[in-house]
Write a structure and sequence with these properties.
It is built from 15 helices and no strands. It folds into two domains: 99 residues; 206 residues, Lysozyme (Orthogonal Bundle). By secondary structure, the chain is mainly alpha-helical. Helix 2 runs antiparallel to helix 3. The protein starts with a helix and ends with a helix.
Length: 328
């Protein structure tokens, strides 16, 4: 009877993890939320497996085995609890502090025009409105370009470049190869609106919709004070409109580090546009070095000046631009 009960608990624990992981994939959880649900799933699998071993193979379940098992299970549940606590408290403070953000989020309201639209169509509408609102705010604040003195940032950075980079930052090669990359990103925007990708985090520390490092964000806040970026980089990178404004500023700042000849061609020459995209991923200094040493072959494997990750990033950018019908 005991063995049957343990077997049932083990089976339920293992099978119960799959719906949790399925929800992760369906909802597109990111960052801390992802860590919490995955930790819970693995804790359930591990606990079920340990119970089965202790019941059916008692000779294996020595005292050290039981001790290690309990430590692992406790660690997994502890990670989940800590993550959930951080997520809840961060959400509490973000909701209170974000009321101070002057850049309100874009919301696609349920109207006769949007009712019945698919998630991907709603996502496209949301993204277009988001870009337009960010540009309007930069223009209203008369944010001056560093790359083209006398012009405004809103008139120097191509919105299509920002859109393509947004997709590249939140697209996997698996989805690109399957032909579902663009649809998945648009559906996420359509379903989640201002919540989409706002807590996405990379292993190197890039964060939020724009996948921007804190040092980069803070430098932009100092360099473009008239843009009125939120001074708290964590909240600022979660706020969609604020994050997109930071992307426009970052690309303008990158152009300012190109040679005058390259700068003048950047809006019409695809070669130079790709340099900006690569710079967004690895830093414009690395790209400038590659161009200086290898000229037109700066992207080639024989040049070997760009990190493999950046080569892959450029491939994603080109595929996404083609699928979206943007300038590549």
């Amino acid at each position: 009877m005991l063995k049957m009960l343990v077997s049932l608990v083990a089976i339920i624990s293992v099978l119960g993890a799959w719906p949790i992981l399925a929800v992760v994939r369906e909802r597109g959880f990111e960052g801390v939320t992802f860590a919490v649900v995955v930790a819970l799933a693995f804790a359930m699998v591990f606990m079920g497996s340990v119970n089965a071993v202790m019941c059916f193979a008692p000779d294996v379940a020595t005292r050290p085995f039981r001790l290690v098992s309990r430590v692992v299970v406790a660690a997994l549940y502890g990670l989940a609890i800590l993550g959930a606590t951080f997520h809840l408290t961060h959400g509490f403070w973000a909701n209170h502090v974000s009321s101070e953000v002057t850049q309100a989020e874009v919301v696609v309201e349920d109207t006769a025009e949007t009712e019945g639209l698919a998630d991907s169509e709603l996502g496209r509408t949301y993204l277009e409105d988001l870009i337009e609102c960010a540009l309007d705010e930069l223009r209203d604040d008369q944010v001056a370009s560093h790359a083209f003195p006398g012009d405004l940032v809103a008139d120097t950075v191509d919105p299509e470049l920002v859109i393509a980079i947004l997709f590249a930052e939140h697209t996997s090669h698996r989805d690109l190869l399957a032909g579902t990359a663009v649809t998945r990103v648009l559906e996420s925007f359509g379903r989640r609106g201002p919540e989409a990708f706002k807590t996405a985090a990379s292993p190197v520390g890039a964060y939020g919709l724009a996948q921007m490092m804190d040092q980069t964000y803070e430098s932009l806040d100092v360099a473009y004070p008239e843009a009125r970026l939120h001074t708290d980089f964590h909240i600022g990178r979660e706020n969609h409109r604020n994050a997109v404004k930071a992307m426009f500023l970052h690309l303008d700042n990158e152009m300012a580090h190109l040679s005058p000849a390259a700068r003048s061609r950047v809006r019409t020459d695809e070669w130079q546009r790709r340099a900006l995209v690569a710079g967004y991923n690895t830093g414009i200094a690395t790209v400038s070095t590659a161009i200086r040493d290898c000229d037109t072959e700066w992207r080639s494997e024989t040049c070997a000046k760009l990190p493999p990750e950046t080569q892959e990033y450029l491939e994603k950018y080109l595929l996404i631009s083609e699928e979206l019908g943007l300038k590549g």
